[in-house]
Task: inverse folding
């Protein structure tokens, strides 16, 4: 249990404060990682292309629920 007066999101590794362009201010964002298919087969051997995935960082504004996917 956290025994501090600091906001709870400061202790949650799945949340961060970031600027939201839609809201026009800093808001709490929920963080997650998604695996998406690779954009093209150049990154992997041709036989493995259909299995190839890459991690993408996903943030969602807690105020307006705008989702942003951050590639590498």
Result:
């Amino acid at each position: 249990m956290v025994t501090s007066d600091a906001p709870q999101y400061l202790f949650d590794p799945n949340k961060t404060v970031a600027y939201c362009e839609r809201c026009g201010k800093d808001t709490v964002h929920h963080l997650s990682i998604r695996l998406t298919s690779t954009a093209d087969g150049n990154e992997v051997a041709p036989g493995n292309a259909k299995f190839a995935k890459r991690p993408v960082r996903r943030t969602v504004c807690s105020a307006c629920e705008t989702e942003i996917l951050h590639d590498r």
